[in-house]
Amino acid sequence: MTALLSIENYHLDIPTFDGTLKVLDGINLSLAQGETLGIVGESGCGKTVLARSILGIGPQRARRTSGRMTFDSMPLDELNEAEWRRIRGVKISMIFQDPMTYLNPLLTVGRQLSDVLVAHARALSRPALSRQERRRRCSELLDQVQIRDPERVEASYPHQLSGGMRQRILIAMALAGEPKLLIADEPTTALDVTIQAQILDLLRDLVHRLGLTVVMISHDVGAIAAIAQRVAVMYAGVVVEQGATNDILTHPRHPYTQGLLGALPDIEGDHQSLEAIPGTIPNLIHPPSGCRFHPRCPRATAICTSDKPAMTSIGADHVVACHHALD
Amino acid sequence: MVLFTLRKVAVLIGTMLGLAALTFIITNVAPGDPARLVAGPDATNDMVETIRREYGLDRPLIEQFLIYMGDLLTGDLGRSIVSTRSVMEELARYVPATLELVLVAMTLGILIGVPFGMLSAVYKDRFIDQVTRILSISGVALPAFWFGILLQLFFAVRLELLPVSGRLPLTALAPEPITHLLLVDTLLRGDFETFREALSHIILPAIVLSFPCLASILRVNRAEMIEVLQSDYIVAARAHGIDSRRIVMLYALKNALLPTIAMIGLRFGWMLGSTVLVETVFDWPGIGLYAVSSALASDFKPVVGVTLVIGFLFMITNMLVDLAYAWIDPRLRSAR
Q1: What ipTM was predicted for this assembly?
Q2: Which residue from A204, A293, A296, B266 has the highest number of Cβ atoms inside 10 Å of its Cβ?
Q3: Could you tell me if B182 and B167 are in contact, meaning their C-beta atoms sit under 8 angstroms apart?
Q4: How many CB atoms lie within 10 A of CB A305?
Q5: Is A103 at the interface with chain B, CB within 8 A?
Q6: For B157, which DSSP code?
């Protein structure tokens, strides 16, 4: 099966006043049609930059230093703005972390949604939709994300709606162009816990019903587990472990993955010992030599400070980048 | 929105009354005996007392205040001591000239400041941004009288393209007034020859007056645009494939306009109060000149009249700014 999205040895730098941030350090990921991939990692590990780079909307100053991204046999790194416009929203689309700030506060929901439809029609060189067609399509889309009173919602401004409602609208916008690939960047992080569950249910339902290919990014392992068949664990701009979700959650092989899972509260287990990973995330201007995790790793030895561990296969569809992978 | 507007109008009326009361208090606290001033240095005490009675200055302060406010409401601002004409009549002559100048200057400021602010935000640190930076720094730094004289020397004296000063040539006849704004009246009357004359007279003073205002509108709009263009909803709009022109012109500009409009309102008030230099250089028959000459002659009534007019215009502008805010931003509409 050929990959829908493939990212090969992707390096990304962001120059700053203090020096160059080496944000992504050789990312390898590939995703087949219909697959759902989760990317977990703590804040600042490069998840969001990676996700946005897939859509060409990363930080303006970000520079790819090597590697490439291919989507549907198109080289994403070589597209110009006009070509991007035929991809964004209609081939690859994205939902965002904080529904409070990702909708324009001065335009009605209906206006923003129908703007998206107009843009898609133009991107696909389809004839422009008539007013009625746009309205009908807007209602359909809102219905798809289980908004019951589309008329009221369309006439509303974002500040008049709840967070959950706004996230539904952003999901509707992302699905408006019937994209092949959906990137979900922490779609539940900014929501109340009860709303999180609703949005996750909705997403899972849509993914199954529409057969979407999904990259879901989160630091919430539970949310990832609910959606993704496969998981990639990121640490400081590096994918350290990748495999089937079940496998990774039950048998983590990388010390970081183990630490990450150990830091989760467990409802059945011992309530006293919530294990934190010692240390803090590294400075990406001067990242640690060798394995970027070694300063915080309990198993680190001399080789970890000198050699960057290669990605090695350690089972069916399970790879890990560690000199001392756990058994 | 209707309720919001009504509330703003009510506040406006209250503020206007407040300003009127304040001007009364200030003129009465100010040192100097107006009756003696009117009577002149050689007047006897009897003459001063007569004038005091004539002007009602011998009555209790409260009564004077009520009379003053009553006169104000009926549009009576008293008489100028120097010209002995009614202040209202004189204001009606001078205010439209200044208002026209300020409106043209403001239009220039907005028409140039907003688009160039936008462009220099989109092309930050590129060529156009450097050009507008020079423009806006010189706008703030150049003194109006110097810049005005420079333009006169170049365009009027050297190139002889535009008239040096005045509002109309001596030979031209102003049209029968409708709005008292020459540019509007000549158009309404179909008198295109005089319109052209009026336009050529207003260009230089309007440019000089608009320059600092243009500069600050440009800088505010640029700074806001830069910030807005980095906001999340712009990222989202890009991700949804909305084309960049629409993103800049609608999604970003609408948000960036709010502080720009506030700046426009402030600058409008500032312009009204600072036309005097430009009016002096270009011999423009406006309230700036009128106010200064009245103040120098200790002619109180015109000074109060000018103060009230500028104050009222400033308040009306502020109300319009508030309404524009609410019109653009739905959050403000529902919040109050």
Answers
A1: 0.86
A2: A293
A3: yes
A4: 13
A5: yes
A6: I
